[in-house]
Amino acid sequence: MPASVCDYHYDLPPELIANRPAPNRDGSRMMVVHRSTGRIEHRAFRDFPDYLLKGDLVVLNDSRVIKARLLAPDAGIEIFLLENQGGKRWKCLVKPGRKLRVGARIPIAGTVAEVVEILPGGERIIAFDTDPDLDAHGHMPLPPYFKRPADQSDDERYQTVFAKSSGSVAAPTAGLHFTPEILAKIPHTFLTLHVGAGTFLPVKTNRIEDHEMHSENYSITPAAAEAMNSARRVVAIGTTVARVLESQPAGPIQPNSGSTRIFIHPPHEFQHTGALLTNFHLPESTLLMLVSAFAGRESIRAAYAEAIREQYRFFSYGDCMLLTD
What homologous superfamily is domain 5-65+146-324 in, according to CATH? Predict the structure, then answer.
């Protein structure tokens, strides 16, 4: 029987949604789920290095979040940058759409934005007269479930300490728990996947197989590929890393740049991901389906029920889960 999106529903008390980070990055709680037995441990993230085995390699996503929300308060307009199309042209979400028809010109972010095309999904292609000054005028693109505007503290905390390559419009949140001190203790390498706004899109089809996944750009360097191929086990930090890894053909990982639309759900057989650190995900989301493929739907269902009973903090600024052998 085909899987239904309802199979991935759970009820979350709203007070468990973390809309602020823990005081310290490594102070988050970490649920450890042993895939072979379903056994659950309750630990702190600072214990993460204790679960690495000899020959393991931790792989992290070094994409940097851009301040993608641009506001023109006087005009009541918001432009959300999605993807650079080359030069000063961007694919964007806008609101309200009625004010941003083709040809509309809006002063915003220290420049002027002109709508040059409306795409079938309602997105706009916008050409800016000069590059928008995101540092001075942009706002961190916090997830909508935070139900608050970004403030100055988010400029630091909604960014990993190792963020390097600008391009994401959402943080690779499993990486938010890491500190320079923890990184110094563990063997690790980086790849890049620029997280798109589609990461928050719900699955709107009843049959999950009918869902159309968004595309995201990634890059694997020669050094990262060599390190992964030499590892006994690859420990993926976040679903973004797992998506890049599982997008690659079976066999040794090759240096590569491209885009992926991979939709990982049961009964996907993982080729390159040996363990996975991830945050707790939204009900009925593609990310919940990915972790269910990795550890088993019933195991994840039980783990999430346990997390709710134990008052774990959920979503982007929340606690994390290590899925290991």
Answer: QueA-like (3.40.1780.10)
- pTM of model > 0.85: yes
Ramachandran region of residue 315, left (φ > 0), alpha (ψ -120 to 50) or beta?
Answer: left
> What is d(CA 5, CA 312) in angstroms, rounded to the nearest whole number?
24
Residue type, 110: G
Sign for the pseudo-dihedral over CA of 91, 216, 226, 232: positive
Q: Find the mean pLDDT for residues 205-221.
A: 89
Q: For residue 250, which amino acid is it? A: A
Q: How many residues does the chain have?
A: 325
3-state secondary structure of 221: coil
Neighbours of 32 (CB within 10 A): 20
pLDDT at 2 over 70: no
Whole-number average pLDDT of the chain: 95
Closest by Cα among 262, 259, 169, 167 to 213: 262
Q: CA dihedral defined by 300, 304, 307, 312, rounded to 10 degrees? A: 110
CA distance 5 to 275: 25
Share of the chain above pLDDT 70, in %: 98
Q: Are 11 and 277 in contact (CB under 8 A)?
A: no
Helix (H, G, I), strand (E, B) or coil at 285: coil
Q: Cα–Cα distance between 232 and 57 in angstroms, integer? A: 8
What's the rounded Cα separation, in Å, for the pair 48 and 230? Answer: 21
**Confidence band of 1 (pLDDT split at 50, 70, 90):** very low
* Domain 69-137 class, CATH top level: mainly beta
Q: What is the reported pLDDT for 91?
A: 95
Three-state SS string over 250-271 comes to: CCCCCCEEEEECCCCCCCCCCC
Is cis: bond before 267, omega within 30 of 0? yes
Question: What ranges do the domains of the chain cover?
Answer: 5-65+146-324, 69-137
Q: Cα(2)–Cα(56) distance, rounded to whole angstroms?
A: 36
